[in-house]
Write a structure and sequence with these properties.
A hairpin with a 5-residue loop joins strand 4 (29-35) and strand 5. The protein is built from one helix and ten strands, in the order E-E-E-E-E-E-E-E-E-E-H. The strands form three sheets. The chain has a four-stranded antiparallel β-sheet, with no helix packed on it. By secondary structure, it is mainly beta. It starts with a strand and ends in a 30-residue tail after the last helix. The protein has one domain (5-130): Sandwich (Immunoglobulin-like).
């Protein structure tokens, strides 16, 4: 059965140059990460001292549906009027899935935050790693022999478990 989601480890590292109503924020910033079209989200603790340059360095684990095309990182600030959104960044999944890097590769990424009017409002720094499922323990000798692989004798120190089966797929290359 195919997987319906993949697990991501997202570390929200820090943000830079955060402003609220064109003034640098003083404190109480947090970040929320959510998958596209999914009710699931994770939020960092509030940074009470960083001001316009908060640091969280907090790892959030999130299930990302296979059909999701983006993640959203939203930075908020708690004010006397309630929690206000400072800026939002929409992160394409293609930035950290696929390509020429292994699945468990750690990506360090920075994105421009945009406020509700679409204007630039700071930068958020994150790292993303797709968790790779752990491989199950190697098959036992009895399961290999039941699949039709001859085990031979174990007098050569190999324990009777084959480590590979060579296969030739075509004619020898021509030599000129």
């Amino acid at each position: 059965m195919a997987a319906t989601s993949r697990t991501l480890e997202i570390t929200v590292i820090s943000a830079e140059n955060l402003q609220l109503d064109r003034k640098p924020i003083k404190k109480n910033a947090s970040a929320t990460v959510r998958a596209e079209n999914d009710g699931q989200f994770r939020t960092t603790d509030m940074d009470t001292e960083g001001g316009a340059y908060p640091k969280w360095n907090e790892k959030l684990v999130l299930d990302l549906p296979m059909q999701a095309r983006s993640l959203t990182v939203e930075v908020q600030c708690k004010t006397s009027y309630g929690v206000r959104t400072i800026g939002t960044a929409k992160i394409p999944v293609s930035d950290f899935v696929g390509g020429f890097v292994p699945e468990g590769y750690l990506h360090f990424l920075s994105y421009r935050l945009r406020n509700h009017r679409g204007e630039r409002n700071g930068i958020v720094n994150i790292s993303v790693r797709m968790k790779v499922p752990e491989l199950k323990a190697c098959a036992t000798t009895s399961s290999l022999s039941s699949m039709g692989f001859p085990m031979g004798d174990s007098s050569f120190g190999c324990g009777g478990v084959p480590t590979g089966i060579p296969v030739w797929c075509g004619p020898y290359p021509k030599s000129y």
